[in-house]
């Protein structure tokens, strides 16, 4: 068991002082809405002509405009990070940790304001936003712990020579997070890079650039020197390939869709002129996560866990359950339970600001994509609940349960990234496992059962990076459930762990013959 580590505690918003703090934070950010935000390159704030417009998914309100980076400025950012690496890589681990500790304090002090931006920009409710902030704090505190351990170097066998094996930083990284965890994933990528002595260029998602800006602004206040953390919002298609291909880019830390992740992986493998290393790529990607319900399961508990996994944050978590695989003898009862829960959620759908359990999906493109899958679902199965959508005020899609789906259906195989649950009927536990594994992904999975043999079988045969029993498939907590997927879900980097940091380090073995 790991000592000296405690996970950050989420705020309880039933406590009036916490609720009041959030309401004040909303009032504060309301005044700021509509502002322009710059790029940050080598400590300089740069405003460009071209802007990314940040839009609230719940209301379509314009939240602000963020300068959009072009290739020339992206090049400047990489050069800046390259220059800063020369000194930052020599700064002591203690000094780097001091900066991260100050960042922890600043994030904590600005917690409700960050939460409020997150609610407005990504459409989360308060609990989801604060949970994300806690994840960021947990990443920081875990990396502080791990870097101290890694800094001791590798244990070696005794020799008469003076030998040492030390971890050293590798260079300039590029951080490319998705919009659905715009704070914790960007923060985790940036801090894992810089605490290990590297420098980083952050390209946030174009859907959530303000939350990302607010984080980078706090990094500046925490005292990271100019050029160590650079911020270049911009379209993935305009600057994405450029920063990945850049010869001075040493590593790419990506989280997002399989399509973009594979493209980055391929592009990073090509050696650019002047490049002196093989680029490292961490690519955490999508999922088509399944939860199995067998005949012995507590059906109420299973339905609650599955509804939560499928519909919290509108099914827009990579770990979300999108396939319930259910034994035939409990199938109808299970569907009835999950439909009742979906109906309850539908009645509590609205903006995250009102702190309702279900909010909007992120943008028009996602809304159209998910609603087109609902139309496919109507043909492939039977809609047991939901199936309606409305974008008149924000991008709202009902929690949707589709029954009578077969294993080869599109909605049983393609990542939808929205509140659509396919329910598949099976005749045996082996068949359930076979279907669960019959996907190109391998991110999360869960089994609801009281049968020890089924638990044992799933432990060995259910091929996912994060496997759970009798609980939901979402809500991985740092250093309790190290997170990362198999197969096309990614490189299984397991964020928050000591191993994760070694992605951004080289191991240098030094030996001196003392008899000379
Ligand atoms: P996405 O469309 O792949 O975008 C992810 C990031 O890549 C964004 O910052 C995007 O920028 C950027 N990008 C796009 N094209 C690029 C290119 N050619 N080169 C470099 N960067 C490029 O994914 P998303 O919609 O933001 O996120 C949802 C996906 O992330 C889902 O598939 C979900 O399962 C996955 N996800 C996985 C995990 C995990 O831990 N495995 C966690 C969270 C989410 P723009 O916004 O400017 O296009």
Key attributes of the depicted protein:
single chain, about 525 residues, alpha/beta, 7-stranded mixed β-sheet, 5-stranded parallel β-sheet, 15 helices, about 40% helix, globular, binds NADP nicotinamide-adenine-dinucleotide phosphate
Structure report:
The chain has helices spanning 16-32, 71-88, 93-109, 111-122, 126-150, 184-195, 209-221, 236-245, 258-269, 299-311, 328-346, 364-380, 429-437, 452-461, 498-501; strands spanning 35-37, 39-41, 44-46, 51-55, 62-67, 162-169, 172-176, 199-202, 229-231, 249-255, 280-284, 289-293, 321-327, 382-385, 389-390, 396-397, 400-405, 420-426, 444-448, 466-469, 505-512. The longest helix has 25 residues, at 126-150. A 7-stranded mixed sheet has the order 14-17-18-13-12-19-20, sandwiched between helices. The chain is globular. With 516 residues, it is α/β, with parallel strands linked by helices. Bound molecules: NADP nicotinamide-adenine-dinucleotide phosphate (NAP). The site of NADP nicotinamide-adenine-dinucleotide phosphate has 33 residues, from helix 8 and helix 9.
Using only C-alpha atoms, the radius of gyration works out to 23 Å
Mean pLDDT rating: 97
How would you sum up the major sheet?
A: 7 strands, mixed
Strand order of the largest sheet: 14-17-18-13-12-19-20
* Structure classification: alpha/beta
| Low-pLDDT residue spans | none
Q: Give the strand content.
A: 15-25%
Tally of DSSP helical segments? 15
Q: State the total count of DSSP E strands.
A: 21
N- to C-terminal separation? Answer: 44 Å
Question: What are the distinct ligands in this entry?
Answer: NADP nicotinamide-adenine-dinucleotide phosphate
Helix content: 40-55%
Global outline: globular
